[in-house]
Design a protein that fits this description.
It is a single chain. The chain is 46% helix and 17% strand. With 290 residues, it is α+β, with helices and mostly antiparallel strands. The protein has 3 domains: 65 residues, TATA-Binding Protein (2-Layer Sandwich); 164 residues, Nucleotidyltransferase, domain 5 (2-Layer Sandwich); 46 residues. A 5-stranded mixed beta sheet has the order 7-6-5-8-9, with helices on both faces. Strands 1-4-3-2 form a 4-stranded antiparallel beta sheet, with helices on one face. α4 packs across α8 and α6 packs across α7.
Length: 290
């Protein structure tokens, strides 16, 4: 390996995994000796017909580290968020560090993406993960979210970018971790860093990698997903007690009807404390209040 180029010899099983893994960014390879080629702004990966894998680019070292240790599990940091598609409840972002020694414990627990687990399982697993792993959580209340969105005119992806970077920087500083950092991709990498610049974020961590559905591929992201979902559920529980009625997740018609009922009983300003006011659901609430 030299500079920002890394290579290794893969076996047929690894080649199959790599091709599947990078299917989302595959490109045409105009070379008969290249079996597969994928490219992003941060790296390119080529698999030759002799099963040599060549990785190049500014983030090549992260991809190389992943595939050198993918079989046995590798140390990495991961972050994920929940609540961004829910009218009720806060936005929660979690970031955690998984070390190689954590894998037997996590595999025994059956850790997977939180969306594949029911709420009961989330409430069981998350406290165990938070006790075992180094993790950071940020909870953006509805009141603060509405203030940022409407006063500062930042969209949801700007807010998410800031929260991810903020937690990654804090955990990286605390743990002194220098390995791969994975974010479940919610926007292009170029936009992510533009959003951080727009937000005037400080201590921007640039050595991060973005993957679609990362929670299905990286243990740390799966753990972060579970922890974030757990904290979201706790806040939903608290809000349900305050409102004396169970709140619903999502942004469905049933959610509309619940929001309308709350607004009619307590007023629109009261409802704002519990919802993301920019969501389309609000238009239906306003129409019902006319």
């Amino acid at each position: 390996m030299a500079g920002n180029a890394y290579s290794f010899k893969a076996n047929p099983q690894q080649v199959e995994k790599i091709i599947h893994f990078y299917d989302y960014c595959k490109v045409t390879a105009n070379n008969p000796n290249i079996l597969f080629r994928a490219a992003t702004n941060a790296f390119t990966i080529q698999i030759y017909t002799n099963y040599t894998v060549l990785i190049q680019g500014s983030k090549a070292v992260n991809e190389y580290a992943i595939w050198q240790k993918m079989e046995d599990g590798f140390a990495h940091m991961g972050s994920d968020e929940v609540g961004t598609g829910d009218y009720f409840g806060p936005i929660v972002v979690a970031c955690c560090l998984v070390q190689e020694a954590d894998y037997p414990f996590l595999n025994q627990l059956g850790v997977k993406d939180s969306k594949q687990l029911d709420d009961k399982k989330i409430r069981l697993l998350a406290p165990l993960l938070m006790k075992r792993l180094k993790a950071k959580v940020s909870i953006l209340s509805n009141t603060k979210y509405n203030q940022i969105y409407h006063s500062d005119h930042f969209n949801l992806n700007v807010i998410k970018s800031y929260l991810h970077n903020f937690l990654i920087a804090k955990l990286k500083e605390e743990t002194k971790f220098e390995g791969p950092i994975i974010i479940d991709q919610f926007c292009d990498e170029e936009l992510y860093f533009k959003y951080l610049k727009d937000y005037k974020a400080t201590n921007v961590i640039r050595d991060v990698s973005f993957y679609i559905k990362a929670e299905n591929q990286f243990m740390a992201v799966a753990c972060a997903s579970i922890i974030a979902r757990y904290e979201f559920l706790k806040r939903m529980d608290q809000m349900s007690v305050e409102l004396k009625r169970p709140l619903l997740k999502g942004a469905s018609n049933e959610v509309d009807q619940l929001a309308i009922a709350i607004a009619k009983e307590h007023g629109l300003e009261y409802l704002k404390k519990y919802v993301k006011y920019n969501f389309a659901n609000t238009k239906k609430v306003l129409k019902a209040l006319q």
